[in-house]
Amino acid sequence: MPYPFAESVPLPLKSSATDLMRRAKEEGSPAGGGPVHTKEEGLAYHAFLQHVNFGRSAGEELRRMEREGLLTPAELALLDEKKLALILSLPCFAGIEHKRIWREQTFLALIPAGELIGTHAEDEILFQGAVDLLVEDGEGFTVIDYKFSGRGDEHIREAYALQIALYKKAVARVMGVREESIGARIVNIALLREIRM
Fold first, then answer.
1. Element (H, E) at 16
2. Burial 104-127, CB ≥16 within 10 A → b, else e
3. What are the tens digits of pLDDT across the range 88-144?
4. Tens of pLDDT along 62-88?
5. Alpha carbons 93 and 100: distance in angstroms, whole number
6. For position 35, what pLDDT does the model report?
7. Which of 2, 20, 52, 134 has its CA 20 to 30 Å from the CA of residue 171?
């Protein structure tokens, strides 16, 4: 007689976005970010967005971050004020200073295994992740994720579809809302693009 819980045996007890992206890549789905400028440059822009006071100018915020020691001299040297101004003018950041936001929001959520990986097992997996920016407005929530890639919009959509879908599931569970009420955008810093997911 076959073991009735055979599909549950190999399941991980805990997973993260990185683990699942790696699994998708191993199964043949594209999960790479494509050519980038430099990792350090991407991290510097990410750090700026982590600390920025939305609604203020890029130059004003750069000077504040330098004064307050929020960015290192090496990070500041990699940032271009005009490029930062263009990033802050993307539609997903419009009026964001008047909305409720969470930055670098880490979470743990129990998600059915079948929604994370291809299985018929009914177990739940503890999924861990970190949303770069979560925005709440009158219509629901928007997940905003920062990437730094030289690839086009369609490649980004395909490469990160799984990650964004899992973030939406996790936010829905943590916030107690319907998954359909959660939107998502990827901000591709390298190409100054906002990508609707």
1. strand 14-16
2. ebebebebebeebbebebeebbeb
3. 999 999 999 999 999 998 877 777 777 666 666 667 777 778 899 999 988 899 999
4. 999 999 999 999 999 999 999 999 999
5. 12
6. 42
7. 52
- Contact between 54 and 151 under an 8 Å Cβ cutoff? The reply is no
What number of other Cβ atoms are within 10 A of residue 45's Cβ? 22
Q: What share of the chain is helix, strand, coil (3-state, %, to 5)?
A: 45, 25, 30
DSSP letter assigned to residue 180: G
Q: Residue 24 is encoded by which pair of tokens? A: 């998708």
User: How many helices (H) does the chain have, and how many strands (E)?
Assistant: 7, 6
Query: Of 152, 107, 169, whose CA–CA distance to 132 is shortest?
Result: 107
